[in-house]
Amino acid sequence: MASFTRLLLLLTALCVFSLSWVPARAATRRFRFNVEWKSVTRLCHTKPLLTVNGQYPGPTIAVHEGDSVEIKVTNSISSNTTLHWHGIRQLRTGWADGPAYITQCPIRAGQTYTYTFQVIDQRGTLWWHSHIFWQRASVNGALIIYPRMPYPFKQPIHAEVPIIFGEWWNSDVDEVEKEMMLSGAGPNVSDAFTINGLPGPLYACSAKDTFIQPVSRGKTYLLRIINAGLNNEMFFAVANHTLTVVEVDATYTKPYATRAIMITPGQTTSVLLTADQIPDSSGMFAMSLGPYVTAPIFPFDNSTAVGFLNYKNKRGEKMSPPLSSTVPLGALLHNLPDVLDTQFATRFCTSLRSLATSKYPCNVPQTIDRRVVSTVGLQLQDCPANRTCTGYDGKRFFSSMNNQSFVRPSTAILQSYYYNRKESGYTTDFSEKPPADFDFTGVSRYQLTWECEVDLGSITYQQEVLRYQLTFTRKV
Questions:
Q1: pTM of this prediction?
Q2: Which among 63, 66, 302, 332 could disulfide-bond with 26, CB atoms 3.0 to 4.6 Å apart, if both were Cys?
C-alpha cells in the first residue's frame, strides 16, 4: 500500500510538472478601444489629451504567441485616426498595419474599424500607437506577446513591469507639429519627459505625479521598457542597480549587464532587475530618464524624469517620493550617462548579441540577391522665396534617405494603387545607394568638441569656416 501511495504521488507530481510546461492554446484575443479626449493635468497645466479608453498611456494588449487578435476601434473624436501595432509582422494582413493613407484608410469621426491579425513566430515586448500625424504623443500602449516556451532566463521572474517613456507638452502637440512644418525648424521641445505618463519630482508641481514601483528585496523583475517618445533617444538607469538586457525589439539577446541603457524612439528593450540593494530609511532608489543627444544643433529637451523603486511595499502603505530637496542630485541621477555620452551609447549598442541558441537561432540569410545601401540623414535646405525659416542658419531642416526627401503626394498611395494611377508622382526608381560615397560610419565632417565643468558645458560645432556655439546646463 505504501509503495502504491508513493507511486501515485510520483505520477501526480509528474502530471503537475508536465502541465506547468504546457503552453496556452492559441486563441482569439478581443479588445475594444475608444479614441477619445480626456482632461489631464501635468506640470500645473490642464489640457484635453487624446487617449484610448481614457488612459494615458493606453491599455496594455497581452496575447500569446500564435494567437489571433481582434481590436475594435471606435473613433470618438472629430478628426481621423488610425492605430499601428508596432513590430507585428503583418503576414498577409497588411491592411491591419495602420499607417494612414499607406496601408489603411483612416478611421473617420464616429466610425468603427476592427483590426484583425495573427501573431506568428514572435514573442516579447512591442507596443501600439496612433499612426497619423503626432497623435502617438499620447495615444500609445504596451503590446506584450507571451512565448510558447519558458523564458530563456535563469532567474525566476517575480513580476513583469511595463515601463513606457514619453514626452509631455503643455501646449497642443498638433500646433507644435504645424509650427515645425511651417518654420522648417526643429519642433518646440517637450516640457517634460515621462515614465508611464508621470514626469516626477524634478519638474514643477510634479512630486505627486511620480511613478513608484514596489519591489521586494532579493526578487528579480522583468522591466518591459518602451520608448514611445517622438523625438529623443533616451538614457535610462536605476540608481545603485544593474540592468541585464535580455531582449530588444521582441528578439531575445545574450544577457548583457549594464549600468544603463540607450533606447531610440519606437524601440523596446526588456531588462532584468534584481532588488539586491540595502535601502536607506526612505526605502527608495531613483529611476532616471534623460536624453541622448546626437545632433546638438537640433533643439532638444534637456531635462530629466525620475521615478522610484520602493523597497517598502507593505500592503496598503501609501507611497510618496522623497523630496528632491532632501536627496542629492547625484544620488537621483546615479548611473545615468551624460547627454553627450556617445562612447557609452556606442559601447551599449555594440555589446548586444543575438541569443543564437537551438531554440532561438539567429537565422541570417547566407546569400545576397541584391545589395542596397540606404543612408538616413538630416540636411539643411535653403528657405523658399518669400518665406521665413527658423532652422539653423535661417534654413529648413529636412530628413532624407539616400539624399532624397519625402514630398507628400497629392493622391494617397492606396488610392493610386487601387485605380492604377501613374500620374500621382509615384516611381520605382529610388536610388539603391547614395549619389556620393564617403565613410558613412566614420568621423563626421561636423567635428564636435566637448568640455565640461560640473553641470556647465560648451560645444563647438565646426564645418569648414562655419562655427556655432551652444552652451547649456542640464535642467533639473
A1: 0.85
A2: 66
